[in-house]
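Form P-L/3: holo structure prediction, ligand tetrahydrodeoxyuridine.
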Amino acid sequence: MDDRQLVGLACAARGRAYAPYSGFSVGAALLDADGRVWQGCNIENAAFGPTVCAERVALFKAVSEGVRSFEALAVVGGPAGEGIAPYTPPCGVCRQVLREFCSDGFRVILASPDGSLRTTTLGELLPQGFGPENLS
Ligand code: THU
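OUTPUT (holo model):
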């Protein structure tokens, strides 16, 4: 599974987004340590607050199936019904949720419409984050 394939799976997940309120559809593909990929899309709600981001859907699917070790995440987003927008990064809440299970070196892959990829890490996205070790 290379980065470009992972982005492709994020794009496929984005096609299943339920985003009637924002009109912004997001897809995520999370690669676990065994090479399995967990896909997620944003799922909005009429009450707005219960909306869940694509990244958390992917992560919660995996964790709920007993998977807790991850290597990389691809995220794509853009106006629903259109191509992707340039480099949609995970929101702050998703960065914190990822921090629970992923190391600073966990790779996050973003994509642009021209096919360029940008790779960053959770450590760069959430420096000095609060994690499980802070409670011990
Ligand atoms: N969204 C995500 O799915 N992931 C992010 O990291 C950023 C935001 C969703 C939430 C909402 O459904 C829409 O994008 C607009 O904020």
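COMMENT: The chain has a mean pLDDT of 98.
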